[in-house]
Design goal:
Number of strands: 8
Low-confidence stretches: 16-37
Strand content: 15-25%
CATH topology: Peptide Methionine Sulfoxide Reductase, Chain A
Radius of gyration: 17 Å
Largest sheet: 6 strands, mixed
Number of helices: 7
Mean pLDDT: 87
Helix content: 25-40%
Number of domains: 1
Strand order of the largest sheet: 7-6-1-3-2-8
Length: 219
């Protein structure tokens, strides 16, 4: 509990600092004018089983679309069976499309760091294998610099007891997972994995980020 509070406090402090990445990356105050660029942007994160990660990010206000899939491997169009063998090099990831006028990349990183353990190599809980590694696939230089900045700051602040092992790598390709993996938690809430693993994690996320939830999913 103390560790989670410490991480949350550190992230909040980091996200209100003006960061001079070409004068573009900063945490906007409520008095800042709305950005006029209405183009949606993309982010790709791996934080263990994609069923869990999808369930969390699809509840964020400003996230328009979330897809579960595979990135970071050596073959094209891998199947779930191939990925779970650990031989393709892919990670289970979610690729999300978001409106930066509503939710910033910094805020997405805040959720990412707080909703999984970035210190366990190739593992999240009972899910073990390189496909479950903690990874950020950046889509542009700004995302790369922000990811590295916050990782370094959390490391220097000792936010976690163990070293952060999160991989930060360039985005190359994303392969959408099979249909039955999409919206998995929403469609399978009675399944044991959903009840025992995903539901408690989702409840914890909703309490920590109550002010950032999609309005129709607050209750």
């Amino acid at each position: 509990m103390k560790t989670a509070l410490k991480i949350s406090t550190l992230l909040i402090m980091l996200f209100i600092i003006v960061v001079a990445f070409d004068g573009r990356a900063y945490y906007p105050s409520k008095t800042e004018p709305m950005r006029i660029d209405l183009d949606l942007e993309m982010a790709t994160f791996g934080a263990g089983c994609f069923w869990c990660v999808e369930a969390i990010f699809e509840n964020l206000e400003g996230v328009e679309k979330v897809e579960s899939g595979y990135s970071g491997g050596g073959i094209k169009d891998p199947t779930y069976r191939e990925v779970t063998s650990g031989k393709t090099g892919h990670a289970e990831v979610i690729q999300l499309t978001y409106n930066p006028n509503v939710v910033t990349y910094q805020e997405l990183l805040e959720v990412f760091w707080q909703t999984h353990d970035p210190t366990t190599l190739n593992r999240q809980g009972a899910d073990v294998g390189t496909q479950y590694r903690s990874v950020i696939f950046y889509h542009n230089l700004e995302q790369k610099e922000l990811a590295e900045f916050y990782k370094n700051q959390l490391t220097e602040a000792g936010a976690f007891k163990d070293p952060i092992v999160t991989e930060i790598a360039p985005y190359e390709a994303f392969y959408v997972a099979e249909d039955y993996h999409q919206n998995y938690y929403s469609l399978n809430q009675s399944q044991p994995y959903c009840r025992v693993v995903i539901a408690p994690k989702l409840d914890k996320f909703k309490k920590a980020f109550a002010d950032k939830l999609r309005k129709e999913r607050v209750n």
